[in-house]
Design a protein that fits this description.
- With about 425 residues, this protein is mostly helical.
- It folds into three domains: about 1-180, no CATH class; about 185-315, no CATH class; about 340-425, no CATH class.
- Helix content is about 60%, strand content about 5%.
- The chain is built from 18 helices and five strands.
- It has helices at about 10-15, 20-30, 35-40, 45-50, 55-65, 90-105, 110-130, 135-155, 165-180, 185-200, 205-210, 215-225, 230-255, 260-280, 285-295, 295-310, 320-350, 410-415; strands spanning about 370, 375-380, 380-385, 385-390, 420-425.
- The strands form two sheets. It has a three-stranded antiparallel β-sheet, covered by helices on one side. It has a two-stranded antiparallel sheet with strand order 1-2.
- The chain is globular and about 80 Å long.
Length: about 425
């Protein structure tokens, strides 16, 4: 029986009731890979679930509450790379406990309790997907949550004992999350605005004067004559333009599941900016002194070229490593949604499986999810006696026949270890 909890609970209240030490928290992830029998015999897990019963109930309530897109981080007044980001450590401690609780309930045949846990897990994933601030971290956290929940949710759907109400509710929750995934468009635009905000701050008069004060007198005088308001306006416009181009390349890489394109674009753009910066040669002291005295626009533009290159040559985050992980989470959700559609068809047709997925759409799912590891074609569906498989080619892009499953834990730690398909089967 669930512990009593306040009616309007939030995550903060849930964390206040947590009773998990750092050492205990480290045990949760390894536990998720143990068998149900091993979990049932774990005194540590039993004690953790008992001690955190109220925290979990508060978490369930918070995860199922409607959000405004700012559940985990408020709307920032100004975006820079120093804008605070949310901390998800406690969320994932309780999320892992929730999934372990669901597994124990499933193994013991307590489906109602397990389904309640998993609908809360789906709600948490939906909130992460719909977050409108701190979008990159929220999206990465959503990908991790999907990876952790996939096998437990798949287990909850297998067989004939799944309640129609749970199927419908889980299908709606997963559709909400799946359809809200924008292939990191919002996150990449937000990250770009953060960099723009940081550049704008560095160009602010007070910060410029602070940096100039570090220069010898003559160089400070030259800089003051050359680096006027027009200089910084031009520099900011040029930097922003280069960052906008880069953002569109990032978006294209995620939308097309093409991590290589991202690296190629950055290399080409940086090389072009470097060539332009070096085209006029270095600016000597006397040339700079003369330009400062007469206000030479040509020299000013050469300095701007160098400034734009220096800003854009700063190491780019390893976004290319995120592309396959993002699409793996996207396809996992698609596999669960497709399996739900097949089971809904089966329930409506006296146990008969559809001959093809097209029979399940649009009657039981609005549109068939695509496999972004297979040119966005529908996931592969195969009947096997009274059972069936739904699978994606997986991040290696090879059709493994739905026989060998991707090791999700290993892949999310190292995206190069990508052999195997993403599979739902029963």
């Amino acid at each position: 029986m669930a512990a009593a909890a306040p009616a309007a609970a939030g995550y903060t209240e849930a964390f206040g009731m947590m009773r998990v030490s750092d050492e205990q928290a480290k045990l949760l992830d390894p536990m998720s890979y143990q068998t149900a029998a091993e979990l049932a015999g774990s005194d540590i897990l039993t004690a953790l679930l008992a001690a955190n019963a109220q925290a979990l109930e508060l978490f369930r309530q918070a995860a199922l509450a409607p959000g405004d897109g700012y559940t985990f981080a408020p709307r920032p007044e100004r975006l820079t790379t120093q804008t605070p980001v949310p901390q998800f450590k406690n969320h994932f401690i309780l999320f892992r406990l929730l999934l372990l609780d669901a597994r124990l309930h499933l193994a013991a045949g307590r489906r109602a309790e397990a389904e309640r846990d998993l609908l809360a897990a789906a709600g948490f994933m939906g909130q992460l997907t719909e977050q409108k601030s701190a979008r990159l971290l929220s999206s990465l956290s959503q990908n991790l949550a999907v990876q952790k929940a996939f096998t437990v949710m798949a287990e909850s759907l297998r067989g004939k004992k799944v309640s129609p109400g749970y199927q419908e509710a889980l299908g709606a929750a997963l559709a909400r999350t799946h359809n809200a995934m924008d292939f990191l468009r919002g996150a990449m635009l937000e990250e770009t605005e953060m960099y723009k905000g940081t550049v704008a701050e560095s160009f602010a008069p007070a910060n410029v004067e602070k940096e100039r004060a570090k220069l010898p007198f003559t160089q400070r005088l030259i800089a003051k004559r050359l680096q006027d308001k027009d200089f910084f306006d031009q520099a900011r416009t040029r930097v922003n333009g280069a960052l906008d181009q880069r953002a569109q390349a990032f978006i294209k890489a995620f939308e097309t599941n093409n991590a290589a394109y991202l690296g190629e674009f950055v290399t080409e753009q940086t090389a072009a900016l470097k060539a332009r910066a070096e085209a006029g040669g270095s600016i000597g002291f006397f040339e700079g002194l003369k330009a400062g005295l007469i206000g030479d626009d040509a020299v000013k533009n050469r300095i701007i070229d160098q400034l734009v290159y220096n800003v854009c040559a700063i190491a780019v985050p390893q976004y290319h490593r995120l592309v396959p992980r993002y699409h793996a989470a996207y396809v996992m959700l698609g596999a669960l949604r497709t399996a739900l559609a097949v089971k809904a068809y089966q329930r409506a047709n006296r146990g008969r499986l559809p001959v093809s997925l097209q029979q399940a759409a649009p009657g039981f799912i609005s549109a068939l999810p695509g496999d972004s590891f297979n040119k966005s074609a529908p996931l592969v569906y195969a009947r096997a006696g009274r059972g069936f498989r739904v699978y994606s080619y997986g991040p290696d892009g090879a059709d493994g026949g739905g026989l060998a499953e991707l090791d999700y834990r290993v892949f999310f730690e190292d995206e190069t270890k990508n052999a195997g398909d993403i599979i739902y089967g029963e």
